[in-house]
Amino acid sequence: MNEIIKKYNTKYxxxxxxDRVRExxxxxxxxxxxLSKKYGFSYWLEFGSLLGAIRHQGFIPWDDDIDIGMxxxxxxxxxxxxxxxxxxxxxxDPRTIDSFQIHCFSQIFDKNTKYVNxxxxxxxxxxxxxxxxxxxxxxxxxxxxxxxxKVVKLNHKLKREYMYSKIYFKELxxxxxxxxxxxxxxxxxxxxxxxxxxxxxxxxxxxxxxxSGRDNAKYINFTTHPLHEIYGSIFDxxxxxxxxxxxxxxxxPIRSDYDSYLTNIYGDYMKKPDINSVYNNPPxxxxxGDGVTWVLEE
Length: 298
Fold this sequence. Notes:
single chain, alpha+beta, four-stranded mixed sheet, 19% strand
């Protein structure tokens, strides 16, 4: 059967195709929610998904992905769920080597789809074994300590280690390079990072640190990929619990201290941004698994 290729522009993506992507990501989220009740683990909405739940009671109008968080102990339960429960999907755990080519957090893929976002324009993305699919991101939280100063100090240490590992080229690739010289220098830097520290070794070391007698520490954070705002996703479990809010007509879990979390990350999070600044980042290519490949017009 010959592949059918269709072209789309930015306007068509945000008016039509984005809803089809959301159907796929939301289906994955509902699967996680169903399994959480069946197998007894907890999770919560994160980042833009949490912002969407609070400000829009669902997806942010220009967003199509979903972010969730879990405590380490719940994540380990999640990984033990029989594979038959994930028919059509792949759970990508960062402790696999291939996943470290691109990221240091978990993802759940719809294996019959393809979704190539703007980050994949770079030379090294085109030469990675990693295949982008429609997916949701899963951030695993570990217990840190009871001392907030130690949390920040440790987070800075982990960030420095990742800065010198080959995983950092993902973050570097987000920057725009407009002339040939800077593009060339960027690729040279990528080569240097490729022969740097192995991210999975850093992950395993940091994981041992996080799992060594800190089960009752009140501060939690996702420590294994700390290339983010230091205070942004630190929770005080003594002041936080799981509550439920409306998301696209479903009652889904969030952490009760969402206000400080969203304020730390987004500032005045109830203020909507300028429309022209957000409807401008469509994916480069989409395949919904129906034999049609959608390609963004250049």
